[in-house]
User: What shape does this take?
Amino acid sequence: MLPTEHRLRRREDFATAVRRGRRAGRPLLVVHCRSGATDPHAAGGSVPPARAGFVVSKAVGGAVVRTKVKRRLRHLVRDRLDRLPAGSLVVVRALPGAGAADYDQLARDLDAALERLLGGAPKGCNPTGAVTDGGRAAGPGKPGRDPGGSAQ
Assistant: This one.
C-alpha cells in the first residue's frame, strides 16, 4: 500500500502534474511529473514528500482488471519513492495494454519513464528545453536537409 502522505488526492494536484509537469510515454503507461511543486496546504511551509496518483480508465479493462493494474502500479511506485525529488507530483496513467501486461512489464515501463523524467533531458533537447537538430528537425525530402549529402 502507498503511504497516506505519498498519495495524490486533490483534482488540482492531478491537473498541476499533468498540465505543468514533464511527460514520458511508454507502451503501457504515461508518467507525468512536476518536480519540486510546493503544496500551499502543507503545514509550516515545509517541503512535502513526493506524492503519486494513478489514472486507470475503462479502456484498460473491466473493474477487476483496473483494480489489479492500480494495485500493481501503487506497489511499483512505493518501491521507487526514494528516487523521486521531495515535493514532486507524479501521475501514472495506464494505457489500454496495461491490463494484459504482467508485473515485470509494468515495472520496466515505469522504470524507463522515470529514468527519462529524472535522469536528464530527453533526447534531442538541450538543458534549456529548446529542441536541437538531433536528426528529427528535418528528414529526407524535407527542407533544410540535403539527402544527397553534398551542397551544390
